Amino acid sequence: MSSWLDYTINGLIVGNVYALVAVGLALIFGVSRLINFAQGSIYLVGAYIGWVAVVQLHTPLPLTIIVVAVAAAIVGLIIERFGLRPLQNSVRIAPLLATIGISFVLDQLVMLTFSPNPRALPSQLPDVRFQLGGGTIGPLDLLIAGVGLTSALLLFVFLRYSKLGWAVRAASQDRDAAMQMGVDVNRVNQAVFGIAAALGGVSGMLVGMYYNQIDTAMSLQATLKGVVAEVVGGAGNVPGAVIGSLLLGLVESYGVAVFGTSYRNLFAFLLLVVVLVLRPNGLFASARQAPPEPLTGTFIAPSRPVRIPRWALAVAAGGFAVLPLFPVSFYVLQTLINAWLLGMLALSLTLVAGTIGQVSLGHAALLAIGAYTSALLSLTFSVPAGLAIIGGGLMSAALGTALISPSFRLRGHYVSIATLAIGEIVSLVILNWEGVTRGPIGISGIPPLSLFGYDLISPTSIYWFSFAVMVVLALLQGRLLTSHLGRSFRAIRDDDVAARAYGLSLNRYKSLAFIFGGFAAGVSGGIAAHLYSYINHETFNTQQSILALTVVILGGLGNVVGAIVGSVALVGLPEVFRIAAEYRILIYGIVLLLLVRFRPQGLLGTI
Amino acid sequence: MTNASEALLALTAVNTFYGQAQVHFDLSISVARGHIVCLLGGNASGKSTTMKIILGLVKPRSGEVTFDSASLLGLSTPQIVRRGIASVPEARRLFADMSVRENILMGAFVRNDRDVVAQDLDRMLTLFPKLGQRLSQRAGSLSGGEQQMVAMARALMSRPRMIVMDEPTMGLSPLYVDRVLELIRTINQEGVSVFMVEQNASLALEIAHEAYVLQTGKIVLSGPARALKDDPRIRDAYLGGSEAA
Ligand SMILES: Nc1ncnc2c1ncn2[C@@H]1O[C@H](COP(=O)(O)OP(=O)(O)O)[C@@H](O)[C@H]1O
Ligand SMILES: [Mg+2]
Q1: Which of A203, A348, A373, B54 would staple A395 via disulfide (CB 3.0–4.6 Å)?
Q2: Residue ranges of chain A whose pLDDT lies below 50
């Protein structure tokens, strides 16, 4: 057992690393009111550039740091110029989605270039430790602290004494007023993206050296940690981001000291949710300060949905229903079963993100809740699979809504962060709650699907079952949208202030949307559990949440038919074109980027 | 009215929309070199949008905007500012977390002559003596009247040929209202043309050379301020637009 001082030192060092990420996020948020989800990818890129420099080019440490900073800054500038600047006049969600797409593309490019296997990133520093009070400290700790302090100092000098720095500060306080002073906001954006990327890249390299290991999973973790630190410190607040990061580092380090390593992230996300719920402006903002987030409203691209006649829908549904009667291959059926399962998740997300405007980034958690519930019901209590799946749906509806309800007063990007964090928390609870979920081992031997005592084992019966469930859910949702309730949902999305003024209770309607959406997603997860027969805490991950979001945007936010069309397209097209599995995520990322840029209303239009 | 050739700023047949909603209907306004021109109108008549059109923050669907005989359409806001137009925005819009000194110096952002900028800062302190003791304070902590002084000093720091002001007296105590109007006149006498938007007609007409009355996006009355001051129609026209006069 190391001393408390060791844990404190470790917390501060890790906090320093987070700070390098979070400060960049804060700068970008300050100027553009954008949470840059690609920040972790730049960190990842920084780590791999560091690896190339150290291992292949044998650069000395100071040069390595410069190479990484410059290369990462260039990546940041490219992202700003080609990914985000064209979206300046788009709907407010567009840049956020673009950064998600960019992050998928960058992560996959790194993975394809360097393989997903972890690599060692030696620090080139002597492996000695000095006594410090009751703890010890090594040269790498000092390096990280030194880089952190130097960066803070440089940033301070830049913001305080350079003309561009003044422009950054002015633009982050009042963008329009800054423009009226002659500030070119594009240059300011370039500056903050360049700086954020340089700091993020160096941070990734330092972390790689600290653990002497880099791998592609670092990216999402870094984004999440940076976002936590930034929000804790107050979005857009640069000194706040530093303090938030150090706090996060310490909370994690002490948490690990008391409870063990697997709890590290749980503490981070719990801290985030608590801060979001109690002090959405961060710990240091004055209470009266308005949240730095414009209202909803223009958040979703308005458009005229494509009208598809009823008979055409009926013909299409009939066609898919009789498909197994024809000699189609097992492979085609398998692909379509996946599409129907994803379709249920997309129905859920299109309701929550599209119809009521709560853009969830943690929707896979609802799958996980449904899957675990259904699996455990049938394994532990011998509940028949058909009933167990309904149980999974109900549990997802109840638990999902209960978990998200404290965040109902949040809006816009904050909803996305909160749902992302809740999604991570669900996965971490599954990992750690071994008594119930069997922890990291996962659940195996889940009985196959069955209905009224008959096992559904043949691909044809599974196909019909999942297709029928999806169609029923879609019909219900279609009815919901044309009802009074559906109109209230859309009123809340379009203008929650006005909706409240008309006497609509936002919490009640948001709950109803999450209950309905939670049920659909839970059922999908339940079916999946019985199909796969084995699940663990990683079966339903953030990638699936983002895939579902891409499907929903492809189909048109809020659009029921669109959700299904989108699922068939995104699951089916890679099969049709025989795209290898490792390129698929890359394709999804590119699809998301193209959609956001050229057709934000999706194929069938938003409703 | 001023004829177009001597106009420093001219809006001609401008039509502006926010989505489907039309805000300006064939709006034409001109500001002669060296004059103070005032745009009067009730709430939501489209005054602030006129300022935004001039500054390039909103683009008109049709019409022309010229400054010094060159079109401003197609220029970005920073480019327009560099042509010599400074602004005192609605509700002042100071950089609240920056100091008063930094706010004033932000006004000189487009200039590169550091030494002269320092002299100009001193000049602002003689023009706005109260700001002298406030220089290192956060701008957000000042009173409304003091903030208005900072906003005006900030606008002057770019050495503009023209200043556009959106309701410079709004929310100020009567003492400050007089002071602000007096300062506008002083600024103007130093050769800066002024285009200001106001709801308070009687005050604005005291210092303006010409005035226009805007009602739901249309100019319903215009002419020399002296003439409009006694015009019975101004009350009718103006009050027709809104109850807030
Ligand atoms: N950004 C905007 N989007 C949509 N409508 C706007 C916007 N800004 C102003 N409006 C509308 O345009 C009209 C004119 O507004 P404005 O120019 O601010 O009027 P004034 O300054 O005279 O009060 C008002 O009806 C206002 O609601
Ligand atoms: Mg106005």
Answers
A1: A373
A2: 1, 287-298
Tokens 């002490």 belong to A254
pLDDT, position B176: 87
Kindly list the structural domains of chain B, giving each domain's residue range(s) and its CATH number in brackets, ordered by start.
4-84+162-244 (3.40.50.300), 99-159 (no CATH)
Alpha-carbon distance of A293 to A231, in angstroms, equals 13
Q: Which of B22, B48, B55 to mutate to test the pocket of ligand 1 (most atoms within 8 A of CB)?
A: B48
Closest by Cβ to B78, choosing from A170, A177, A179: A179
d(C-alpha A297, C-alpha A496), whole Å: 8
Among protein residues, the one with the nearest Cα to ligand 1's atom 21 is B48
Identity of the amino acid at A284: F
Domain architecture of chain A: domains with CATH: 2-259 (1.10.3470), 310-320+330-598 (1.10.3470)
A270, HSE (Cβ side, Cα atoms, 13 Å): 10
* Ligand 1 centre distance from Cα of residue A380 (Å): 63
- Assembly ipTM: 0.91
C-alpha pair distances (Å), A430 with each of A335, A391, A525, A539: 28, 18, 15, 11
Contact B55 A180 (CB under 8 A): yes
Q: Whose CA is nearest to atom 7 of ligand 1?
A: B18
Residue pLDDT, tens place only, B68-116 = 999 999 999 999 999 999 999 988 899 998 999 999 999 999 998 888 9
pTM: 0.88
Contact between A182 and B110 using a beta-carbon 8 Å cutoff: yes
